[in-house]
Amino acid sequence: MDSRFFRRLGWHLFEHPRFPLACLLLALLVALPSLSVGFFSDDFMHLTFLEKRVVWNPSWWDLYRFTPDDPSHLEKLVAQGVYPWWTPKDFALHFFRPITSALVAADFAWFGHRPLGYHVHTIFWWLALVGVVALLYREALPGALGHLALLLFVLDDGHALPIAWIASRHLLTGAVPALLGLAAHVRYRERGFRAGRWLGPFGLAIGLAASEAAAGVAAYWLAYEWLGRRERGRLRHSLPLVGVLAVYAIVYRALGCGARESGAYVDPGADTARYLANAVERLPILAADAILGVPADLAGTLRKGPMITVGLLALVGLAAGTRAVWPRLDQRARRTLTWLAAGSAMSSLLTLGGILGSRLLLIPSLGTMALIATVILHGVGRIGRAGAGVLVVVHGLLAPLVLVKGMFMLGNIAERLERTAETAEIAPGTERVVVLAAVDPLLGLYPWFIRRANHPELTENWFTLSATRGTHRVTRTGPSSLRLEVEGTTLLKGILERAFRRPERTYAVGDVTEVEGMRITVAAAEAGAPTALDIVLDAPLEDPRIALLGWQHGALRRVTLAPGETLTMAP
């Protein structure tokens, strides 16, 4: 499967100078399904923050500050049900994304509660990213190889969330200026483009102010200077990059940004050991996603062992395929692929602090797609052609289908989540909603924000006792008391549940948590995780100001129990 093979198929069009424009049009086409998604999860948090409907609200330029600096304010958020009862007092989650926050605030000023405008704005950033990647490939990897890599980048199914989820737009707004700066720097070093001397660090600085993900672009810059150049001056040309990163790190820490005591987010600076331990299993899982299209998002529900094995085999296969075609490449292509591959690996390592998922591969995929395009275009031998064929099927046929389907699935999930929050059986005048079993972590956190965003007149507080996907039994043990048990598993196992508490912070029988009008006591535990809770309210369960809800028949329905009665709720 070489260039002659592609020409026989009519793939000489990959050499056409207007091919990037066709990719840009294709990028617009695959992004159109995102227009139907609406708001989803964190988007509602941003709406409530901007409308000042929470007891504590971050500034309009700091919407990704999810916790206040003052621990007493965090205690109040937990006490009023904004954050779950298992959130520790020293929990912190704050990302430095002022540019992205300002753009969301501008969307809100223009479009209010109409999500279509937000999504059109996001598509603009997606098209800008494709244009910048095309520019970078033209500088570093010109010709059919760069065009094929661009096509694979556009069709990459891992881009669904950054395109379709408004709150995840930060990945795009961070990548665009940073990669534009990288392209300017490469042009400066390769062709003497003098403006690239300052456009490079300036673009990176703007990207970092939009998203910490832009640090992945810095990895490509370092790889380019130290592996893509063969002359003196590499250290001198790396110093502006180091300076930008140093200033960013100082500002980041000075503002108290980062994650603390979270089981899903890991701050590499504050918890380096755990970060590196996670990397051992997360990097192969991301490799399986990037190379063979095995979604990294499934790591939260499937066994990680097989996914790690697939990832390691995929890495070995891609390395072997690249080595086989290496003699066919000219010196410039070899040099470019070397620094792109190293940049991809290093940028992958820098992304591992967030919740594991395909969206983490947005910037790393820049180098990965270049390697995959090389193996597809130059695959030799029977095994090489078979491997190239597999990559064509995965990235050329399946990936775009999964990309579009992923957006529609996100839209369906968002619609179900909002519908569930809106149709919950809550009578007018309710002051306190107690969700005994939400079944889904999304239902454990976001209904309060959805209802506050859509109905500013509501004042109800919302407490979720369990968001574990499993069968629950609830027994009324007294006039104002309950026991909640989960079968065959433990509480606090879901990824969003763990986002608010590290697994190392365990519970023991007898541990008590006080929230507004309710005392929660761990009645049974297994390996440090609760399996049963005793709940005592400050009023009888029949009090009309209290709504007890549970997941029943596909909705959050009111739970009424006689003394001693037990109700089983299955997902």
Automatic annotation (TrEMBL):
<protein>
    <recommendedName>
        <fullName>Mannosyltransferase</fullName>
    </recommendedName>
</protein>
<feature type="transmembrane region" description="Helical">
    <location>
        <begin position="307"/>
        <end position="325"/>
    </location>
</feature>
<feature type="transmembrane region" description="Helical">
    <location>
        <begin position="118"/>
        <end position="138"/>
    </location>
</feature>
<feature type="transmembrane region" description="Helical">
    <location>
        <begin position="235"/>
        <end position="255"/>
    </location>
</feature>
<feature type="transmembrane region" description="Helical">
    <location>
        <begin position="200"/>
        <end position="223"/>
    </location>
</feature>
<feature type="transmembrane region" description="Helical">
    <location>
        <begin position="144"/>
        <end position="164"/>
    </location>
</feature>
<keyword id="KW-0472">Membrane</keyword>
<feature type="transmembrane region" description="Helical">
    <location>
        <begin position="337"/>
        <end position="356"/>
    </location>
</feature>
<keyword id="KW-0812">Transmembrane</keyword>
<feature type="transmembrane region" description="Helical">
    <location>
        <begin position="362"/>
        <end position="381"/>
    </location>
</feature>
<keyword id="KW-1133">Transmembrane helix</keyword>
<feature type="transmembrane region" description="Helical">
    <location>
        <begin position="388"/>
        <end position="410"/>
    </location>
</feature>
